[in-house]
């Protein structure tokens, strides 16, 4: 083997050897899972030498580091083979031996160490940085349990543990030599790193994702020299290892759990110590630290990096406070991913005082320093500048003050940050604020998940440059009226729809019609994303057909995929409600040939790869101003699904690129919401919009059974009475219902003219160039990190 070649003999011999030593089996007798593991280990052997070389190439360069509590990586095997450009060869070799590559691929557990958009963005960024030859290293936590596995029991979500490394993890290298200790007030914990290679497309640059696992100190030492106190070591190990035991399955609210705070400090301190140790090997002067390091904070979860870096620089490296502050702010940068007030992290001062008293003192000093700075500049210091306020620490404000850059993730989101949510801060530090519209990697979300469309694009563009330069898709625009091309595009869409139908048949036990419109909403379950709006629409359609069995309906398959945070009662109620609607619709013979509802179980990255390519319609229907960006919207677009959506997040930019006439925009805009908010009364649409009352009332009139959980009554109350601190229908579902229904009509009419529909779909593919995470990463690298390419 060598270069980008994988020869037959070597591959098979190496696999055989792996199977013998690790499974005590011959190729003949080995299971598919065992073969998957053997193959992956062989691929790792292929990666390893390039990995080291790549690292050496960047030895003296400035490098960037991504600090994130989440990485939603998904599967690695096929992605690595594709990026190494040996997938076809390997597939051929294995198939000649009677193995089915796809079956081996399906053996891999998703590495699902994240909740949703924020974690998946981190994964796309790593892929893009490696591909674009930027030295970007990811730091995070090696959770033993990733995001829970979702099952439905009688329509209710049930969570099961995700022991993703149970059968081993061929993609990680344990680095015992680089373990560090993390000091809490009354506990010392060992952080043990595992490195995963991030192979750039073309294998030129291979970066690293370093994930920390927590261990007790005694247990760690026992193995080597201290052979006493097994009992004590065991207890300590249990306590320490709890830190990296499980990902918090919460995508929206801060639970305020002390263990979560421990997780944050654990990985942030370990990562910064790691950088400092490495720096010391070749440098002495820590006043130069920022010239070699750019550290991006993925939301505020790693915001404790501000005081921790101050601590390390002032106490361990003896910089003055002033020098340390300059280095810290010049090194760090912060990305905000949400405007949802309840997701803005705040920590009770007491937690910090108890767990991290030294860090608390530093935060307090930072807080005071800002007040002095404001006083000196003659600026009053309103509440918004009190980093410590009412006994809690505002992590977003600490992050803005302690870094040189704060960015939002779509134009609208950044503008709302600047002009509303963080207006005071923007007025104080206008130069710090900037936008970095999110993106996705076309390697996973087109090349891997839709090889058929990839091939067509490559043929039409006369090359596969688009794989590393998505703007090339512009070149597809000229085929927008080309019937032959559109027919081939249509054939591919149909093929992907058949494949999804087969998968859904097997995994959900539902038969769907590949000729129907696949109308898909896949994302975390949250009230603001308004899965309930789509459910009401389906139910309204159902009743109309019942009222008038002759009513025409172009056959449609409504597909949902979503996990709800286990403690988010109302989101779980929405899941149960959709599953009830699904049962009603799917079991009614009158709906045959008209509609079906699917709620895929355990929606995850590997399932998403099958859904996006098969979609006809992308549902992006969040309340305007609530979705920071969205990234699923971009994956649909790239695979040729027009959007039905609101003017929210990156939808606005998507429509700008693909053309408003090729998408279906509806509903209130941010300005509309602001102007009606105070006077809005959902009873008005509830009473006045034909059919709306009927569907809303199914929540409480006995149509559906929530088994006395009170879930449906709670949903009803949230819509019409308000609950907690929210006014009734806080997310304007009832207000937007009519326009959504009207727009869905337009979708149906447009789809009847399938040729014309494919033109719209094509315009979306051709316009998707902007939404590559390669572009996003270039912007971070140039505008925030000031990196050179390798
Ligand atoms: C969760 C908890 C606290 C703070 C932020 C979050 C968060 C935000 N988690 N995911 N997001 C999403 O991030 C994506 C990537 O930027 C966005 O596309 C999406 O709109 C956010 O909801």
Automatic annotation (TrEMBL):
Main location: cytoplasm
UniProt-listed InterPro entries: Glycg_phsphrylas, Glyco_trans_35, Pyridoxal_P_attach_site
CDD domains for this protein: GT35_Glycogen_Phosphorylase
Modified residues (N6-(pyridoxal phosphate)lysine): 635
Entry's Gene Ontology cellular component terms: cytoplasm
Role this protein plays: Allosteric enzyme that catalyzes the rate-limiting step in glycogen catabolism, the phosphorolytic cleavage of glycogen to produce glucose-1-phosphate, and plays a central role in maintaining cellular and organismal glucose homeostasis.
NCBIfam families in alphabetical order: P_ylase
A GO term for molecular function: glycogen phosphorylase activity
Leader sequence residues: none
Gene3D superfamilies linked: Glycogen Phosphorylase B
Cellular compartment(s): Cytoplasm
Entry keywords, A to Z: Allosteric enzyme, Carbohydrate metabolism, Cytoplasm, Glycosyltransferase, Pyridoxal phosphate, Transferase
One of the protein's GO biological processes: glycogen catabolic process
Cofactor(s), names only, from the UniProt record: pyridoxal 5'-phosphate
Protein source organism: Isachenkonia alkalipeptolytica
Protein family (similarity comment): Belongs to the glycogen phosphorylase family.
Protein name (Swiss-Prot/TrEMBL): Alpha-1,4 glucan phosphorylase
Superkingdom as given in the UniProt entry: Bacteria
Catalytic activity: [(1->4)-alpha-D-glucosyl](n) + phosphate = [(1->4)-alpha-D-glucosyl](n-1) + alpha-D-glucose 1-phosphate
EC number, as in UniProt: 2.4.1.1
EC top class named in words: transferase
């Amino acid at each position: 083997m060598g270069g980008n070649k994988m020869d037959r003999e070597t591959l098979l011999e190496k696999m055989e050897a792996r199977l013998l030593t690790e499974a005590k089996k011959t190729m003949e007798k080995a299971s598919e899972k065992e073969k998957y593991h053997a193959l992956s280990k062989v691929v790792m052997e292929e990666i390893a030498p390039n990995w080291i070389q790549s690292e050496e190439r960047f030895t003296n360069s400035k490098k960037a580091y991504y600090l994130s509590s989440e990485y939603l990586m998904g599967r690695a095997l096929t992605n690595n083979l594709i990026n190494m450009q040996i997938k076809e060869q390997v597939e051929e070799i294995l198939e000649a031996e009677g193995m089915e590559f796809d079956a081996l691929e399906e053996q891999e557990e998703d590495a699902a160490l994240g909740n949703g958009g924020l974690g998946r963005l981190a994964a796309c960024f790593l892929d893009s940085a490696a591909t674009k030859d930027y030295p970007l290293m990811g730091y995070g936590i090696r959770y033993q349990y990733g995001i829970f596995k979702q099952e439905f029991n009688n329509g209710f979500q049930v969570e099961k543990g995700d022991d993703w490394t149970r059968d081993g993890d061929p993609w990680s290298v344990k680095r015992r030599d680089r373990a560090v200790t993390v000091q809490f007030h009354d506990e010392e914990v060992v952080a043990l790193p595992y490195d995963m290679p991030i192979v750039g497309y073309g294998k030129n640059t291979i970066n690293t994702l370093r994930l920390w696992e927590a261990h007790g100190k005694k247990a760690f030492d026992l193995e080597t020299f201290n052979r006493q106190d097994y009992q004590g070591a065991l207890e300590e190990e249990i306590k320490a290892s709890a830190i990296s035991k499980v990902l918090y399955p919460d995508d929206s609210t801060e639970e305020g759990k002390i263990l979560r705070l421990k997780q944050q400090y654990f990985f942030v301190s370990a990562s910064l110590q790691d950088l400092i140790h490495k720096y010391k090997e070749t440098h002495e002067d820590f006043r130069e630290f920022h010239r070699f390091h750019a550290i991006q904070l993925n939301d505020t979860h790693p915001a404790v990096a501000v005081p921790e870096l101050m601590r390390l620089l002032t106490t361990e490296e003896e910089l003055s406070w002033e020098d340390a502050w300059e280095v810290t702010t010049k090194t760090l940068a912060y990305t905000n991913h949400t405007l949802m007030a309840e997701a803005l992290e705040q920590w009770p001062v007491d937690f910090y005082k108890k767990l991290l008293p030294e860090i608390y003192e530093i935060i307090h000093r930072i807080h005071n320093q800002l007040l002095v700075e404001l006083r000196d500049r003659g600026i009053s210091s309103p509440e918004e500048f009190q980093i410590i306020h009412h006994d809690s620490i505002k992590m977003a404000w600490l992050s803005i003050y302690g870094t040189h850059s704060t960015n939002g993730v779509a134009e609208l989101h950044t503008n709302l940050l600047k002009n509303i949510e963080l207006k005071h801060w923007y007025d104080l530090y206008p130069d710090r604020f900037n936008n970095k519209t999110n993106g996705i990697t076309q390697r996973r979300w087109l090349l891997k998940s839709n090889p058929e469309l990839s091939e067509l694009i490559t043929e039409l563009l006369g090359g596969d440059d688009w794989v590393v330069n998505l703007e090339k898709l512009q070149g597809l625009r000229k085929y927008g009226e080309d019937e032959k091309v559109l027919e081939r595009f249509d054939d591919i869409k149909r093929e992907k729809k058949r494949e999804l139908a087969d998968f859904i048949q097997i995994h959900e036990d539902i038969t769907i019609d590949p000729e129907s419109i696949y109308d898909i909403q896949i994302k975390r379950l949250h009230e603001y994303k308004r899965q309930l709006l789509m459910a009401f629409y389906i139910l309204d359609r159902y009743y109309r057909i019942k009222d008038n069995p002759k009513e025409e309906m172009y056959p449609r398959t409504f597909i949902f995929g979503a996990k709800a945070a286990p403690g988010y009662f109302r989101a779980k109620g929405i899941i149960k409600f959709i599953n009830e609607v699904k049962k009603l619709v799917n079991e009614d013979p009158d709906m045959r040939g008209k509609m079906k509802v699917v709620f895929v179980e355990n929606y995850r990255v590997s399932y998403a790869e099958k859904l996006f390519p098969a979609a006809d319609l992308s549902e992006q229907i969040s309340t305007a101003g609530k979705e920071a960006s969205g990234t699923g919207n971009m994956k649909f677009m790239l695979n040729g699904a027009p959007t039905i959506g609101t003017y929210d997040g990156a939808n606005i930019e998507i429509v700008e690129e693909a053309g408003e006439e090729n998408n279906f925009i509806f509903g209130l805009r941010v300005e509309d919401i602001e102007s009606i908010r105070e006077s809005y009364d959902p009873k008005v649409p509830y009473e006045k919009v034909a059919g709306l009352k009927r569907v809303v009332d199914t929540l409480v009139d006995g149509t559906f059974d929530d088994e006395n959980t009170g879930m449906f009554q709670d949903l009803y109350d949230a819509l019409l009475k308000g609950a907690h601190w929210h006014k009734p229908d806080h997310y304007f579902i009832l207000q937007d219902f009519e326009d959504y229904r009207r727009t869905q009509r337009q979708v149906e009419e447009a789809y009847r003219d399938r040729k014309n529909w494919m033109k719209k779909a094509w315009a979306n593919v051709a316009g998707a160039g902007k939404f590559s995470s390669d572009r996003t990463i270039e912007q971070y690298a140039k505008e925030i990190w000031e990196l050179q390419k390798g």
